C-alpha cells in the first residue's frame, strides 16, 4: 500500500509553521503521530476488505449439518460426557486424516467429581473444543467444509437457574457442502461415527466399566438429562473365592442363560436373567454381584433408586 504521509507530510509541515521553534516542533510531532495512525488504520481496513472480498463465494450451499456443543464447568457431572458422539467422530476424523485446526479450548471437568485411582481411559478426544479454523473455513474432506461459531449464551438474569449459565461453553459446528446432497453429507458423517465407535471398541478392548447414575436436578416434570459416572471396573471377586449355599446352582443357571439364547427365542421369552439379593450388611451381596460381572464379562450399571423421582426417569435410566 502507498504511504499517504509521503505526499501530505511536507505540505502540512510547511503550512503550520508559526515561527516559534517550540510550537513548530510540537505541531510537527502531533502531525507525524496522527498521519502514522491514519496510515495504519487505512492499511488495516483495506486488508480486511480484501479478505472479505476473497472469502465471498457465489456458490450456493447444497447441504448443511450443524452440531451444538455445550459444556457447563459448574455442573456436578463430568462435562466431557455431555459432548455429542458426532462431534467426537469429527475429532477422530481430523486426527485420523491429520488435518490441522487453528485453535482449541480445553473442556473443563467438574471439580466436584469424586476422584478415582483409575484414570478414565475412554478417549482423549473429549478433552477440547475446536474454537477456530483460522481466517477461512476448513476443508476436512472432499467437498465438505467445517465452520465454527461461538453460540450466544443465555442471559443469567432471565434464567431460573442462573448459576448454571455462568461460564457455560457453547459452540456451533457446521459441516456444509456445495456439491453433496444432504443425504450424502449425512451418510459421510455416519461413516465417521461408525469408524469412531470401532476405534473406541478397539481401544477399550478387554476393559469393563462400572457406571453409576448421577443425581438429577431441576423440576421432576421438566426434561432432564440422564448422566452416569464411569469407573474402570476391576475386581478380585470370583466364584472361586466366594462360598455360599446354592453357588453351584447359580453357576449352572448362569451357564444355561449364556449358552442357550435360542431357548428364549423359541419360546418368545426375553433373553434376560434377573436376581434379587437381600440380607444384612456384609453378607456378600456386593461381592456376588462383582463375581457375576466378572464371570459374565459384562459392565456394571448401578441405579440408586433414591435418585429416581419419576417413572420417566427410571425408563430413561434403563
From TrEMBL:
Domain ATPase AAA-type core: 275-309
InterPro entries, A to Z: ATPase_AAA_core, Mitochondrial_chaperone_BCS1, P-loop_NTPase
Transmembrane segments annotated in the record for this chain: none
Source organism, top-level taxon: Eukaryota
GO molecular function: ATP binding; ATP hydrolysis activity
Name the record gives this protein: ATPase AAA-type core domain-containing protein
Organism the protein comes from: Adineta steineri
Amino acid at each position: 500500500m502507498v504511504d499517504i504521509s509521503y505526499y501530505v507530510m511536507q505540505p502540512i509541515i510547511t503550512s503550520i509553521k508559526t515561527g516559534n521553534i517550540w510550537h513548530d516542533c510540537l505541531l510537527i510531532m502531533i502531525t507525524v503521530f496522527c498521519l502514522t495512525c491514519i496510515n495504519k488504520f487505512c492499511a488495516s481496513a483495506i486488508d480486511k476488505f480484501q479478505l472479505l472480498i476473497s472469502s465471498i463465494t457465489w456458490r450456493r450451499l447444497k447441504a448443511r449439518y450443524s452440531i451444538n456443543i455445550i459444556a457447563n464447568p459448574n455442573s456436578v457431572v463430568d462435562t466431557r460426557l455431555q459432548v455429542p458422539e458426532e462431534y467426537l467422530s469429527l475429532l477422530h476424523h481430523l486426527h485420523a486424516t491429520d488435518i490441522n485446526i487453528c485453535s482449541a479450548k480445553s473442556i473443563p471437568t467438574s471439580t466436584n467429581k469424586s476422584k478415582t485411582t483409575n484414570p478414565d481411559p475412554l478417549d482423549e478426544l473429549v478433552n477440547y473444543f475446536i474454537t477456530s479454523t483460522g481466517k477461512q473455513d476448513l476443508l476436512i474432506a472432499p467437498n465438505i467444509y467445517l465452520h465454527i461459531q461461538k453460540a450466544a449464551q443465555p442471559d443469567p438474569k432471565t434464567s431460573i437457574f442462573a448459576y448454571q449459565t455462568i461460564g457455560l461453553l457453547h459452540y456451533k459446528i457446521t459441516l456444509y457442502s456445495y456439491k453433496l446432497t444432504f443425504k450424502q453429507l449425512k451418510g459421510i458423517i455416519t461413516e465417521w461415527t461408525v469408524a469412531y465407535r470401532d476405534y473406541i471398541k478397539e481401544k477399550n478392548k478387554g476393559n469393563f466399566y462400572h457406571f453409576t447414575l448421577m443425581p438429577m436436578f431441576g423440576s421432576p416434570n421438566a426434561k432432564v438429562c440422564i448422566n452416569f459416572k464411569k469407573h474402570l471396573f476391576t475386581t478380585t471377586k470370583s466364584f472361586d473365592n466366594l462360598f455360599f449355599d446354592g453357588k453351584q446352582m447359580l453357576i449352572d443357571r448362569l451357564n444355561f442363560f449364556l449358552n442357550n439364547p435360542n431357548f428364549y427365542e423359541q419360546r418368545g421369552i426375553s433373553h434376560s436373567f434377573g436376581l434379587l439379593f437381600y440380607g444384612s450388611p456384609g453378607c456378600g451381596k456386593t461381592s456376588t454381584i462383582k463375581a457375576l460381572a466378572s464371570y459374565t464379562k459384562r459392565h456394571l450399571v448401578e441405579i440408586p433408586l433414591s435418585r429416581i423421582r419419576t417413572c420417566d426417569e427410571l425408563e430413561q435410566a434403563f
